[in-house]
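Entry 12.
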Amino acid sequence: MAKKSGGGGCLVVVLVVGLLAFGYYKWQHGSSSAPPGGADTGGGTGRYVALGDSYTSAPRTGRQAGTPAGCERSDDNYPHLVSAKLKPAEFADVSCSGAATGDLTAAQKTSNGTNPPQLNAVTAKTTLVTLGIGGNDVGFMSLASSCATSQRAASPCKDRLTAGGHDQLAERIDATAPKLGAVLERIHSKAPDAKVVVVGYPAVLPDGDGCWPTLPFGAGDIAYFRDSLGKLNKMLEDTADAHRAGYADTATPGKGHDACAASGERWVEGVLPASPAAPLHPNARGEQGMADAVLAVLKLP
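Predicted 3D structure (tokens):
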């Protein structure tokens, strides 16, 4: 009996270690997951609606698509690429640069026109929704200009945002989770038959200390923002899972294609883009990589 009990104990230990290792892997690397249930979309059937911010709208990567012009929505962003592959009966891309979760349910004023509440595009006929949102709630882009430094090892933003023992970005990420959850529930309510996919953010910053001065952020801030973006993606993944949505991990396939990569390999441009794109945003190559991640979640080649 003692031997039998010992074997069971070893099995428990192995299972626990395995689960911990899996959790560590997911934290470090992320993972995609398919959306549960829902109607099929494509081949001339269904309605696909794309919601999101500038990482979805893809400013300056292609020709302007739709209105208002201030949303800077390009015709080669990942929603358009996914739609071209799926060929749904109806397609609506209402993503908009600068959007936060609040702009999904309220009109968003841009520098050139007003975008209606994005969720207005989600109807009972909708069979697929992709959602890329959260970065502006946390304030990543608005912080970039204040973080530039002439000192390679400096970390002005980390020092300021973690002063007093409070990590402001971590707190903002936590505060965004219930907002995202409420949006996902609203989508399910408006479109009960829709598959919903939350789309994560690609790898913007490299491992290591970065590429100062090409990317003019000190090593401490590079590490801080890289870790914060990882926390944001983890929150997006967890919230999607908790609210019956799939998750498209774009950070893992984007690893090595960050803003410090060679211009021919880069998915995300630097402060001075070498390819058509907004600074610190995906270029056309990055939008294709994001589209591939969404298609993989939908089990399409």
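Annotation: The first helix runs from residue 2 to 29. Residues 1-30 form one domain.
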